[in-house]
Structures are given as C-alpha cells and as structure tokens.
Amino acid sequence: MPSVRPITPTEHRDHLASLPSASFLQTPGWAQVKSEWRSESLGWFDDSGKQRGAALVLYRKLPKLNRFLAYLPEGPVIDWDSDCLRDWLDPMVAHLKRQGAFAVRIGPPVVTRRWTAAQVKEGVADPDVKLLGQVPPEERSAAGARVVAQLHDLGWRHQAAEGGFAAGQPQYVFQVPLRHPDGTARTEDEVLKGMNQLWRRNIKKAAKEGVEVSAGTRDDLKAFHDLYVHTAERDHFTPRPLPYFEVMWDALNADAPDRLKLWLGRHQGDLVAATLAVRVGEHYWYSYGASSTEKREVRGSNAVQWAMIQDALASGCAVYDLRGITDTLDSDDSHVGLIQFKVGTGGEAVEYAGEWDLPINRALYKAFQIYLARR
Fold first, then answer.
1. CA angle in degrees (0–180, nearest 5) for 255-260-264
2. Does the keyword Acyltransferase apply (predicted)?
3. Is the domain of 341 the same as that of 361?
4. Which of 79, 139, 300, 331 has its CB 3.0 to 4.6 Å from that of 114, i.e. a possible disulfide?
5. What is the pLDDT of residues 127-161, one digit of tens each?
6. Is the pLDDT of residue 163 over 50?
7. SS3 for 120-131, per residue?
8. Binning pLDDT at 50, 70 and 90, where does residue 334 land?
9. Does residue 24 contact residue 110 with C-beta atoms inside 8 Å?
10. Are residues 47 and 182 in the same domain?
11. Are 278 and 299 within one domain?
C-alpha cells in the first residue's frame, strides 16, 4: 500500500510533468487561484520511496468550527486503473482526517461513457429524448465502471452533477479528439472536415471578413475582462473580477510557461471575441470566453476557437476540451444552445465518473449538506 505525505509545490510540479497530462485543477498553481481556501500538496510513495501519485487538496472550513471539507477537484492523480483503489484512497483519507477533515470530496478523472456528435444531434432532434443518458452511448468504459463499483463498495457517495457545492466540476464535457485511435495526430484538415457545415462556413466567413486572431499578454487581460463583463450582462451570469484572472495568469504560468493563454479576435481594430485556454501536457482546455453583441456576423467566436484548436494541434495535444455541458437534450431547455454550439465542432460528449463524497464525521457532514441546501 503506498504511503501518503505532504510534498512541496516543486515535487508536485515535477511529478505532473512526468505524466501525459492531469487536470489543471490538480496543479500547485491552482492553489494560488483558490487562495481563500487552505491548500496542501500530497504525494503517494511506494516502499522504495518512488513517488507514484499526487494531489492538490483544498480545505473548505465549516462556519464557526475548525473542521474542513477536503476537496480534490478532478483528482487525485493516482493509478485509477488499480483493482484495489482502497490501497490508494485509505492512506489519503487517514491523512486528511488528521488534518481536521469531516468529509472528503474527490473527482476521479475517469471516463465512463462517450457519445458521438451525431448521436447528440439526433438526441436533440428526438422529442422523446430529454437527457443524454437516454441515448445509448458509442462507448461504455469498463475501467470507468470498475472505478464506480469500487467507490460504491468503499462507502463513497456519488454527488449529482447539479449539486449545490459551488466549486463542483462538470460531470459531462465536450471534447474534440486530436489523435486517431492508433495514436497518430489528426491534421488540421481532418479536424475541420469533422466539423459541421455551419462551423466550417463560419470559420471561412471570419477569415473572409478579416477577423485577426492573436495571442495576448497579461496586459491584455483588461480588454478581455471588459468584453467578458459585457458578455455576462447579455447572457445573465455573474462575472468574476479582473484580479481573479490576473492571479490565474500569474499562478498557472509560474507552474509552466504558456500554461494559460489569452486569445483575442479583432475585426478592424474592434475586439469581437476573446478566450482563455489552459494546457497541461497533452490536454488543452477552453476555459473562459467572451464575445461582443455587435459584429456577431463576422463570427469572431468561431475564429478564436479555430485558432485554439490549431494551437492545440501544434502543441502535440491529444484532446481539445470545451469543458462542461449539461446532460439535457430537451430542445426547449435554454442550455441546449450551448451543447449545439459545441457539437458543431464534431467532437464527442464525454461523461466522467463525477464527484464522490466520503463522510468521516456523519453528523457534521449532514449539517454541511443542510447548510449548502439553505444557501
């Protein structure tokens, strides 16, 4: 059974750098972004002292009590193919309990099901289909099913994706594979041909209209943020403040150069679209986006997305990740427009194992759930 102990940010970074990829939410830099929470880097070590795993733990304090929810977003980074997850999770839980955790929340980075873009499109068109789960998947992961079964057996509780925890991560995402099944890279032409006609037309139109996309610097974050606030007002969501993105830029790029990139789409000098992208190893995420209400006809959003996909391909990435979607396929649901936009990329809907809780102190855990439900 591996042993678990705290590690330095440098040990944490070095271990992640030895892997094909890991979630950016499990990097030491993310601890700086979430500085309002106490954080800790953990390492798993075998009997010879070799590091076998890592995790970023965020401790969320209970009001008025010196007890914490230990949260590992999209982690820990361990061998999830193990037939004995208890050997990995038990020493972690024992350590977190000593740190004052009343419960632990994890997000295994393990895929359970996949659906093709065509399947999602057919599901939206079918009036009898309301949820993604009603569509038979293209692929069911045996490894994912094994993880879910083991977590159930070990007493972990699956959390609904729409649950009240503010930091909860999406269980369903939309991804564009950038490699063939044999591991060889797809070309730009192959990725483009995989998109639907509207996406291809919009990318071509943006180029014809003269939309210019470039990578920005930290100084351009203010311009991104102004457009993001405009987008938030139009689309009715609460924007994050500018300092959040400045900290995100500094922290993630301190972990690795160009980990966080800013992309700006301009038309005749006007900023029409802007995005933030994150890359860890072979995984490339579209993180935040903004677009102007004016000049929508020049298709700046499509141009910026295409620039990011091209950058992901040039960086040797295996996947371009458009992040969260809901599991609704109801054409009357307001969220379905976002799914349709992402489906146009020709990628696939991916279900992860989701987030799981292990109550350590059941009374405090129950009180915490009641507190969240009342917020």
1. 160
2. yes
3. no
4. 139
5. 999 999 999 999 999 999 999 999 999 999 999 75
6. no
7. HHHHHHCCCCCE
8. confident
9. no
10. no
11. yes
* Separation in Å, CA 139 to CA 113, 173, 296: 6, 15, 37
CATH number for 342: 3.40.630.30
**For residue 155, is it within any domain?**
no
Residue 321: domain span:
114-123+129-138+173-352
**What are the φ/ψ torsions at residue 269 (nearest 5 degrees)?**
90, -15
Q: Do the beta carbons of residue 120 and residue 349 sit within 8 Å?
A: yes
How many Å apart are CA 321 and CA 111, to the nearest integer? 13
Distances in Å between the alpha carbon of 132 and those of 71, 90, 178, 297, 325?
27, 34, 23, 31, 10
Same domain, 183 and 100: no
For 363, what's the count of Cα atoms within 13 Å in the CB-facing half-sphere? 0
Residues 332, 206: Cα–Cα separation, whole Å: 29
What was the pLDDT predicted at 166?
Answer: 41
Asked whether the predicted pLDDT for residue 243 surpasses 80, the reply is: yes
Only one residue has tokens 């038979």, namely 136
Least confident of 59-73, 156-170, 237-251, 280-294: 156-170
Do 340 and 230 fall into the same domain? Answer: yes
Is position 79 within any domain? yes
**Does residue 24 lie in a domain region?**
yes
Whether 151 maps to a domain, the answer reads: no
Tokens of 90: 């038990």
Q: Do residue 84 and residue 134 come from a single domain?
A: no
Alpha helices of 170-299 — where are they, by DSSP H? Answer: 188-194, 197-209, 221-235, 242-255
| Alpha carbon distances (Å) from 193 to 50, 209, 280, 316, 348 | 45, 21, 26, 19, 15
Q: How far apart are CA 177 and CA 186, in angstroms?
A: 8
Would you state the structure tokens that stand for residue 214, as one six-digit string? 């470039």
Contacts with 11 (C-beta within 8 Å, 6 or more apart), sequence order: 41, 43, 51, 54
Is 69 in the same domain as 189?
no
CB half-sphere exposure, 334, CA atoms < 13 A: 2
State the Cα torsion 276-280-284-289 to the nearest 10°.
-20
